[in-house]
Structures are given as C-alpha cells and as structure tokens.
C-alpha cells in the first residue's frame, strides 16, 4: 500500500527515509523572490531524483494579464501528467529558499483536488544541512502519468468576491506582504502597481509564520491565527501575486483552521485595476 500524506509538511528526515518509494515524486518548485534583485549566479543543485516544476513558464497561464495566474483545470492536469504524476503518487514540493514558492504548488494541487501532497519543511537548505543526497539537474523523460484533476472552487477567489466582502465581511482577508507594502510606506516591486491594501484586510507578513526557513510550531501558529481572527471567520489570503499568500494558507491549516481561499490575482490585480478602493 502506498504512503499517504497526513499533514501538509514533511521533514527532511521523512523524505530521506522514503527517497526510494516507487510512488514518490519530488518537485523542485523554486522561483526567485520578486523583491530581490541579484546578479549572482550559483551552480544549481537539487535533491536527488527531483523534477523541476516550472511555476512561471509551465504552470501559470501565460495569456493572463497578471503573473502566476493558475492554469485551467484541463491544462494543469495535462502538464502534471507530463511530469509523470499519477493518481497514486506521493508529491513532495520544495524550494531552494527554505519555504517560499513550494506552498504555492501545494495549494495548486489542493485546488485541483489532489490530497497526497506536502511541502518539505526547510526545503533545500535543511536538506543540505543534513548532508542528504543532492545532484546536478539533468534532463529527464517520463512515462505520462494518469493524474486527474478535480477542481475545488472553494480554494480560490477573485476580485468580485473580494469587493463584495468589503461590505458584508463574511471572510477575513489577510495580506502576506510586508507591513511597508501594506501601508504604502514601501514601494511595490512592480512599479506600475499602486501602494496600499484592500479595505478591511489585515496584515500578516509571511515571515511571521516562519523561523529559520521553516514553519513555526503548530502551537505557535495557532496563537498567531487565533489572535488575528478572534471571530473565527474563514480566511482569504492575498499577497503580491499569489505566491506568499499560499504560505499563509498552509500555515493556517497547520494551526487547525480548515476553510481558506487564495486570491489568485492578489495585490497585482487589485492595485492595477481602476476604480477599486484602496486603503493606506
């Protein structure tokens, strides 16, 4: 019987112990931080046996007006199959920064109704710290998988829903950007985007749920989210373009909350769309 993922994160020890499981798929989900400009190049390495999951160029809708827009369901299903992912696969996502873009991929699979997926807590830095096996990336070919997507619309939300929520306040909108960006005291990395935040939203910078490149304990996360949300409303998570909102989504699950959605367009869409209300 295949392994089942029981929590949305796994440790590097767990992954190393199951590295040879025949159903294991390790996805390198690394993207650079939009807020970091660097010309330094390092030799890329990956966890042994990993497959590159290209968020930007393969698993985002390139025709969409905003970055990182989720693919249509049939396109996601086909691209996942091309990576050799099956219904029975155990998918572990990681990134080179510890915890940054891998939760976005975890959320994508949640959105597509696939449950046997987790992120590697601490990512590549924690893996290397333990001297677990790495390799240089090489081109790989795969037998096409039989992965099937089952779209879960409750995991995603859009601008009209956010706009209506300003008045009815059914959800708590939580913004994962820095406090400077949230309060418009710090410029947006995309110069064409206005500063500020969605009215009635609250700020929880994504670094608040992390420590040393890993998620804080479940107990610490529960305190953070209970203090943030005393009325126990369902969450909507937003950020710049849907990447770090997914970190908060995963952290909320770890803290015991069950109901959340990610605003896929996030502040890039809201801050560049005319006639939408903005607070500073």
Under CATH, the topology of the largest domain can be stated as: Oxidized Rhodanese, domain 1
List unreliable stretches of 5+ residues.
36-40
Query: What is the CATH architecture term of the largest domain?
Result: 3-Layer(aba) Sandwich
| Mean pLDDT figure | 94
Q: How far apart are the first and last residues' alpha carbons, in Å? A: 53 Å
Q: What would you say this structure looks like, in words?
A:
The chain starts with 8 loop residues before the first strand and ends in a 10-residue tail after the last helix. The protein folds into 2 domains: 9-151, Oxidized Rhodanese, domain 1 (3-Layer(aba) Sandwich), CATH 3.40.250; 154-270, Oxidized Rhodanese, domain 1 (3-Layer(aba) Sandwich), CATH 3.40.250.10. It is α/β, with parallel strands linked by helices. It is built from 9 helices and 14 strands.
Set out the fold topology.
Blueprint: E1 9-10, H1 12-17, E2 24-28, E3 46-47, E4 51-52, H2 73-82, E5 90-94, H3 102-111, E6 117-120, H4 123-129, E7 134-135, E8 156-157, H5 159-168, E9 171-175, H6 179-182, E10 202-203, E11 210-211, E12 214-215, H7 218-228, E13 234-238, H8 244-254, E14 260-263, H9 266-270
Parallel strand pairs: 1-6, 2-4, 2-5, 5-6, 8-14, 9-10, 9-13, 13-14
Antiparallel strand pairs: 3-7, 11-12
Helix pairs in contact: 3-8
Protein traits:
single chain, 280 residues, alpha/beta, Oxidized Rhodanese, domain 1, 2 domains, 5-stranded parallel β-sheet, 9 helices, 14 strands, globular
